[in-house]
Design a protein that fits this description.
alpha+beta, five-stranded antiparallel sheet
């Protein structure tokens, strides 16, 4: 037969048709998986305004609080910008002992990494997932991180063997997976201000592709130096008052903010099967790029419109189905009108108002953490059925053409919200959008089983603090039986424990490190419990002045010393993670009245000094030389409570985008 023989042509056509049918069958089988909804089952967060939990975040939003404050002392020189912003009150504290990280290693870790560890743990606890039970599992970690202020603060003379790992963006996600022994995808993403929402997008893809069964997704951003802020001021990007006046006529740039957020994601079918607390459902996500816009950092309206349409199509919802958009909304004079007009085009044809707001009006622009901050706000809004008020909005930016699409910025709480979208745009040009909806209504069975509340912690002090949190929660109405069940199935087993049969017994229960009792089997819905009370030590930022401490004669450090601070007390007060040599003791420290104690550093020398509140001069009590980095011995870490083998009780289960 020749190549033109009809029989040969027919044979090749039949082969091609069979191949096409096989590819079509594969695509049809994969389509349901690609479209499978994803459940948000847990949240961990630290944001300005004292936010350290989803409950405190919702309280700030619902009350319309403004979290912008003057810059905390010790961050950088007083003259540098920004002077006001959305700052966390503490970026130096970290519970290194809980994570079994040696002090020298903790001091060399970027505080963004330390913050992520604690927030990831809290997110899993909020989801009632025992972190020990994830060891060896296909759990993924997806982190958005875009700044490296910490690395710029570390002088060359202070670089040691921990600096490379402690400042590596890859390790921001990798250390979480290492400590929890997670075996799913693990990556750190930098797409500037869209980083954390892009991380959520890839976490959803990994869940749908069966690359992982549970995912931690979020981001972090801290302002630890003045360089970026000064650069943004020079570019005309920052508002002088440090506030994001989203879509308002007074919009004059964005205010910088900081924080961290993490969500725990599972496929909806798995979450419903296992009785997980579903807070919201992610229907679809999309990402794209601006390409060649008016400038490298300038937004692209048509790209934003195309992004939202792609996400809506993937979610299988119409533009009229969406009640609320958590906008990027940085408050820049050019960016806000472009985003508004892109929304008006994407949602054209509506016969009811589309509500549009931005969490940046409360917190400032948290940059790499902005996307997850907006997502968490929207999850909470859907969970409560209410959009909280948007701040700093009085009159629409006159550059916004209202057009025929009804769009409103809510300045008061608005109820009746069931479906929403969240946008995040990076000044690199990478955009992300997520479509989500309220959780399904479920008939939950009652809790059955033995009513024994078993609490555990890393040490007795933390256990007492945890018991106090539970006492407060029970006083506020937390059901005891559900708490017993959730604690038994959704908490790690740590060395020290108490077990009680009534909330009243918490006040007198004595911590024990003996083998704990084994609670009987329980079943039923899990509830939100108090999270672990981390006991944070201070690890000062490189170059930051150490915090002063007031020492009194009755301080427990001086117990049995008649007010004399012996060597052990002096070294405790010095709190230096480095190795010391050439110690001298110019004057004894004797406490007859309260004294202010400080640590003073100069070059490679460190000194412990004190004075009374009435004195102006400092008295030096101890001086020492800090060992060079290459002379430091390797530190050893004890087994981590995160990676230890589970006990028998452990359950398994300007013009910038900004």
């Amino acid at each position: 037969m020749t190549a033109t023989d009809p029989r040969d042509v027919l044979r090749r056509a039949l082969i091609e048709i069979r191949g096409l049918k096989e590819r079509l069958a594969v695509a049809e089988r994969a389509a349901p998986a690609r479209a499978e909804p994803v459940a948000v089952v847990g949240i961990g967060c630290r944001f300005p305004g004292g936010i350290d939990s989803p409950a405190s975040f919702w309280r700030l939003l619902a009350e319309g609080q403004d979290a912008i404050r003057p810059r905390p002392s010790g961050r950088w020189a007083d003259g540098a910008a920004p002077r006001e912003g959305g700052f966390l009150s503490d970026v130096e504290g970290f519970d290194a002992r809980f994570f079994a990280i040696a002090p020298r290693e903790a001091a060399a870790m970027d505080p963004q990494h330390r913050l992520l560890l604690e927030v990831a743990w809290e997110a899993l606890e909020h989801a009632a997932i025992d972190p020990h039970g994830l060891a060896g599992s296909r759990t993924g970690v997806f982190v958005g991180l875009a700044t490296n202020d910490f690395a710029r603060r570390v002088p060359e003379v202070s670089v040691d063997r921990y600096f490379g790992v402690g400042s590596s963006p890859a390790v921001a996600s990798g250390r979480i997976a290492y400590l929890l022994d997670l075996r799913g995808p693990c990556l750190t993403l930098d797409t500037a201000c869209s980083s954390s929402l892009v991380a959520v997008h890839y976490a959803m893809r990994a869940l749908r592709d069966r690359d992982c069964d549970t995912a931690l997704a979020g981001g972090v951003s801290l302002m630890l130096g003045p360089s970026l802020g000064e650069s943004f001021v020079s570019a005309g990007m920052l508002a002088p008052d440090g506030r994001c006046k989203s879509f308002d006529a007074r919009a004059d740039g964005y205010g910088r903010g900081e924080g961290a957020g993490m969500v725990v994601l599972r496929r909806l079918s798995d979450a419903l099967r296992d009785g997980d607390p579903v807070l919201a459902v992610l229907r679809a996500s999309a990402i794209n790029q601006d390409g060649r816009s008016a400038g490298l950092t300038a937004p692209n309206g048509p790209a934003q419109t195309a992004l939202i349409r792609t996400a809506l199509d993937a979610a299988g919802v119409a533009p009229t189905d969406i009640d609320y958009i958590e906008a990027h909304g940085t408050g820049t004079p050019l960016g806000d009108p472009i985003e508004w007009h892109a929304l008006a085009t994407a949602f054209a044809g509506r016969d009811r108002p589309l509500l549009v707001g931005s969490v940046k009006s409360n917190l400032g622009h948290t940059e790499a953490a902005a996307g997850v901050a907006g997502l968490i706000k929207t999850v909470l809004a859907l969970h409560h059925g209410t959009v909280p008020p948007n701040l700093h909005f009085a009159r629409r930016n006159p550059a916004i053409n209202t057009g025929s699409t009804p769009i409103e910025v809510p300045v008061a709480a608005t109820s009746g919200v069931r479906r929403a979208g969240v946008s995040a745009f990076g000044f690199s040009g990478t955009n992300a959008h997520v479509v989500l909806e309220a959780p399904p209504v479920r008939d939950l069975p009652p809790v059955v089983g033995e009513g024994v509340l078993l609490l555990s912690a890393h040490d007795p002090a933390a256990l007492r603090a945890l018991a106090a949190r539970y006492q407060a929660a029970f006083a506020a109405g937390m059901p005891f039986a559900a708490a017993c069940h959730t604690a038994a199935t959704g908490r790690a087993r740590l060395p020290w424990w108490i077990a009680v049969r009534t909330p009243v017994d918490l006040a007198t229960a004595m911590p024990s490190d003996a083998p704990p009792p084994v609670p009987g089997p329980t079943a039923g819905p899990r509830i939100v419990l108090p999270t672990y009370p981390f006991h944070r030590e201070r690890f000062p930022l490189p170059g930051a002045p150490p915090a002063d401490r007031t020492l009194t004669p009755d301080d427990k450090l001086l117990s049995g010393t008649d007010g004399l601070a012996h060597l052990g007390v002096l070294l405790t007060l010095l709190d230096a993670p480095e190795v010391l040599s050439d110690l001298t003791f110019p004057a004894p420290l004797v406490l007859a009245t309260a004294r202010i104690v400080r640590t003073h550093r100069a070059d490679r020398r460190i000194a412990l000094q004190s004075r009374t509140s009435a004195e102006t001069d400092w008295t030096t009590h101890l001086t020492a030389t800090l060992a060079a980095a290459d002379a430091l011995p390797l530190a050893t870490s004890s087994p981590s409570p995160l990676t230890s083998s589970p006990s028998p009780l452990t359950s398994s289960p300007g013009h910038a985008r900004g």
